[in-house]
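Project standup — Tuesday

K.O.: blocked on the structure for the chain from last sprint. Re-posting the sequence here as requested.
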Amino acid sequence: MKVTFYGHACLGIQIKDINILVDPFITGNEKASHIDINTIKADYILVTHAHQDHTLDVEAIAKRTGATIVSNYEIVVHYQNLGFNGHPMNHGGSWQFDFGKVKYVNAIHTSSFPDGKYGGQPGGFIIESDKSIYIAGDTALTYDMRLIRKQFDLDLAVLPIGDNFTMGIDDAIQAARYVDCDRVLGYHYDTFGYIEIDKPRAKAKFDSKLKKLYLLDIGESLDV
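H.V.: unblocked you, prediction finished:
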């Protein structure tokens, strides 16, 4: 499994010959201006919630690739009504896809489309294939995360660390404890002023708790 960071909360995940894209927000991110969305492969697009900074490029990429959009019921129906392929899920549910098993888990946040339309309840994803990865989505620290370690032996946890709109560094360290995962990929930080972080300090804090924090450059990849 290879994970590529496309900035903000957008990830590319390659599992064998299947390409998964998570929360595509690239063209609206000045820091990702060197990423050409027309070169990104996507068999599936996973959407944690409906906010624009997670859905801006969904339609353009899905139209070009024919990708199946996987999200909560309301988001998937929204895109199905526009003619896109979709697979609806809801909290606690799981499905065996051709690349592995996906479970849709709780997140504490809000979810609405840019026009104010209801976007269902936000969530995160656990992908279980040759490796297991937890993508938290935009969320506060929640005690529900302790349930994840009872069902999954995670190889990587992808956690928001920018604070203000989501967890910050200290809560992300606690989340890593809750899910019992020592390898954390940080995301949802530095895109704009509200979520800028001190990266050396963030890494040092994780190191002090015997956790490894990966902060990838936009376009950089990590083998899980």
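K.O.: great, moving the ticket to review. The chain has a mean pLDDT of 98. The radius of gyration is 16 Å.
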